[in-house]
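Example 3.2
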Amino acid sequence: MCADKRATVERLILPALPFRPVIADRWIVSELAFFAVKHAMAPERTYAALASAVRVRADVTLLLETPAEAAVARAARRADDAARPDWDTVPVQEHVRAVHREITARPEAFGLLGPLVRIDACADRPTVLAAAWDALRERRLLPALPLKETSR
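Structure, written as C-alpha cells:
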C-alpha cells in the first residue's frame, strides 16, 4: 500500500505539479475505505501508514457519494466482468459509505485529504461536473487557460 503511493507521488505527482494540476481518482479515501471494509483497520491506522508515504496534501478532495443501492446498480452495468462480487454488494457499499461519513465528520484527523467536498453523484453527469468545477473554482484551483491567438 505505501510503496505504491510513494512511487505515485515521486514518479507522477511531484514532477507534474509545477506545470499542471494533478487529479487522482480513488486516492487516499479509497484506501481508507478498502482497508476498513476488507481488513477491519480503523481509518486512522491506515491513514497513519499512508501519511508517512504520501506527505503531499491535496488541495481538495471531492467525494462523489451515491446510496449503496445506486453504487451496486452502476457496478452491474459495467462491461464484461468489471463488477466485483466481493465488493459490489449493498452491505459492503453501505460499510464504505459509513467509512466516508466517519472521515468527513473528522477532516482534521485526515489532513492530507485537504478540504473535503461531498458531491451527490446521483445527479445527472452535467450537474455532478458542475458541482466539481464549482468546488475547484471556490478554492481558486482552476488552471489558467491559455488565450488563443486570433487571426486577423
